[in-house]
């Protein structure tokens, strides 16, 4: 069953839908809006896109990055993947509300292989932290006590997992993939493992949020990307989360 949605105004006339939870607004949506729209955390890392880019939004959440991208590149072709059912419902509502019905959406997690009924931990008060690997949130609870309290209310949902390469034909059966954005709460290497050999040369750029950047950077370097890792700031600094950019020269 889909969660009830609540509309939140973020700036001027811009707002979006989020799942209603039992504890009120945790401030997570405002933080994500600041990070994406104000700080330009994904496109401000040396990313260069054509006028009509082909983009993958892995871990789309309620769709803020896709909305930001479409505001800058209206002709962008986007695949937005989000596994949590309540969050996926908000994603679809936001795309419709802002007139972006052309975005390809999939209610799946991205991983190394196709799976069904995979346990996924959904945090009602911090849905952006929902993850396949809840054990990784131990560090968050220890280093950020306020976040730890908000992570206390969780439930397990069963999600489907697909390989990114199995979804790419629906987005772009041939030609370049201009950007793959990955923000998947600990499953970064899983997503990368789901890219087939034939698709790696198609990918021009990646931007990845990771708490453990070293293995991600090493993999991208082996794949021929020029890699940079931007040091964390704000609430992410305590967790050591870095934004990794990979670009082909």
TrEMBL record:
<dbReference type="GO" id="GO:0008168">
    <property type="term" value="F:methyltransferase activity"/>
</dbReference>
<feature type="domain" description="Methyltransferase FkbM">
    <location>
        <begin position="57"/>
        <end position="225"/>
    </location>
</feature>
<dbReference type="InterPro" id="IPR052514">
    <property type="entry name" value="SAM-dependent_MTase"/>
</dbReference>
<dbReference type="GO" id="GO:0032259">
    <property type="term" value="P:methylation"/>
</dbReference>
<keyword id="KW-0808">Transferase</keyword>
<dbReference type="InterPro" id="IPR006342">
    <property type="entry name" value="FkbM_mtfrase"/>
</dbReference>
<protein>
    <submittedName>
        <fullName>FkbM family methyltransferase</fullName>
    </submittedName>
</protein>
<keyword id="KW-0489">Methyltransferase</keyword>
<dbReference type="InterPro" id="IPR029063">
    <property type="entry name" value="SAM-dependent_MTases_sf"/>
</dbReference>
<dbReference type="Pfam" id="PF05050">
    <property type="entry name" value="Methyltransf_21"/>
</dbReference>
